[in-house]
Design a protein that fits this description.
This protein is globular. The protein is of the alpha+beta class. α1 (2-15) packs across α2 (28-36) and α4 crosses α5. The longest helix has 19 residues, at 340-358. Among the domains are: 2-107, Orthogonal Bundle (Arc Repressor Mutant, subunit A); 262-332, Alpha-Beta Plaits (2-Layer Sandwich). Helix content is 42%, strand content 14%. The chain is built from 15 helices and 11 strands. The strands form 4 sheets. A 5-stranded antiparallel sheet has the order 5-3-4-7-6. A two-stranded antiparallel sheet has the order 1-2. A two-stranded antiparallel sheet has the order 8-11. Residues 270-298, 299-328 form the 4Fe-4S ferredoxin-type domain. InterPro entries: 4Fe4S_Fe-S-bd, 4Fe4S_Fe_S_CS, Fe-S_Ferredoxin, WH-like_DNA-bd_sf, WH_DNA-bd_sf. Keywords: 4Fe-4S, Iron, Iron-sulfur, Metal-binding. Pfam families: Fer4_21. One of its GO terms (molecular function) is metal ion binding.
């Protein structure tokens, strides 16, 4: 009973973090935690917040010897259960959210059982996430879909984001890794997620990815454009990652695709627009769209504006150049927070407001 109680406490603790960890009727979330955390690790994780702290401060709360606490925290960081930041000789530890965080940090430790549990849990997690105005990721246009004369914010320009955020690590996509282990892999590259800054440092230390140059990162963006992947960076002007996502594997895109109006739930300043007279009904755009936002009509393609997420994949391969990206009307745009701290603060406030509304 005592062991079960600590996992219940950890589930509640993770659910108080901005991204949440919603409870389920089946209790699959507890099963996931038991696969990942020992009871002792669960107790330690319950004491951490999103504020990075030295082991000495955490040891005070636990009323334990700092040396012992430091050793356990370091092992937990190595296992992908919490986040670690090193600056010079100082090391600080903080809580990791379940998604995006703990789950992604286990890309090298997936098992069929863990995958099955995650797939059972994912609809509950994303149902809660879709109710927030502020998501963790946003969508930016692939580089070739935006012309030099178009107005685009610096934090939406993929090449610029890569050039200005270093060090850079490339890591395996956990969604494609998951599908590969269950025999459902697509033909996109496995090594395709870009991680920057402190996140890159954590990934390198934990063996989750390898450091690459700016030119190598730009090549990954080019490959993503060619094989039809959506660029999803952190929903902040100062990014920590860029995911290159396919609609067949990405849990976020798969759950968005189930919605009637995916465009309402993403942060994206752009939408595809068709020149009907130039369209020759070749169907290339239909194949490229990850949201089923384009269909073929009698005389030309038809873009469903409620489904278009502004990724630009349909633009770059249209042989007649009949599709362009246009900026959405201001009233349909969502602003991008300056930092992840601001993103998480907004998410937390939105979740608290929703809980008060249900009370």
């Amino acid at each position: 009973m005592e062991e079960n109680r600590v996992y219940e406490q950890l589930a509640e603790h993770l659910n108080r973090l901005p991204a949440g960890f919603p409870r389920t009727p089946t209790g699959v979330e507890i099963r996931i935690l038991k696969r990942l955390f020992t009871p002792e690790e669960a107790r330690y994780a319950c004491t951490l917040t999103l504020k990075p702290e030295p082991p000495e401060e955490i040891a005070k709360r636990l009323n334990l010897e700092p040396g012992k606490v430091a050793g356990i925290l370091e092992e937990m960081a190595k296992k992908g259960l919490i986040f670690r930041i090193r600056k010079g000789s100082e090391t600080r530890y903080m809580a990791a959210q379940f998604i995006i965080g703990i789950w992604e940090y286990h890309v090298n430790q997936l098992t069929p059982e863990l995958i099955a549990d995650l797939r059972e849990y994912a609809p509950y997690f994303f149902q809660q996430a879709m109710n927030l105005r502020t998501p963790q990721l946003r969508v930016i246009p692939i580089p070739g879909s935006v012309t030099a004369v178009q107005s685009i914010m610096p934090y939406e320009e993929a090449r610029r984001l890569v050039e200005e955020n270093q060090p850079i690590v490339v890591a395996p996509c956990i969604c494609r890794k998951e599908h590969g282990l269950t025999g459902e892999a697509c033909d996109r590259p496995l090594e395709s997620c870009l991680v920057f800054g402190l996140g890159a440092q954590y990934y390198m230390e934990n063996g989750l990815g390898r450091q690459i140059t700016v030119q190598e990162a730009l090549k990954i963006l080019e490959e993503a454009e060619r094989d039809g992947r959506v660029l999803q960076p952190s929903n902040a002007q100062k990014i920590t990652n860029i995911c290159t996502c396919c609609g067949c594997c990405c849990q976020i895109l798969k759950n968005l695709k189930k919605l009637d109006k995916p465009a309402l739930y993403v942060v994206s300043r752009h939408i595809a627009e068709l020149d009907e007279e130039s369209c020759v009904l070749c169907g290339t755009c239909v194949d490229r769209c990850q949201m089923d936002a384009i269909t073929l009509g009698d005389d030309h393609a038809v873009i469903n504006r409620d489904r278009c997420i502004g990724c630009g994949l349909c633009v770059t391969t249209c042989p007649e150049e009949a599709i362009t990206l246009k900026e959405k009307p201001k009233e349909l745009q969502k602003d991008v927070p300056a930092s992840l701290r601001e993103t998480y603060a907004r998410m937390f406030q939105e979740r608290m407001s929703a809980m008060v509304g249900k009370a």
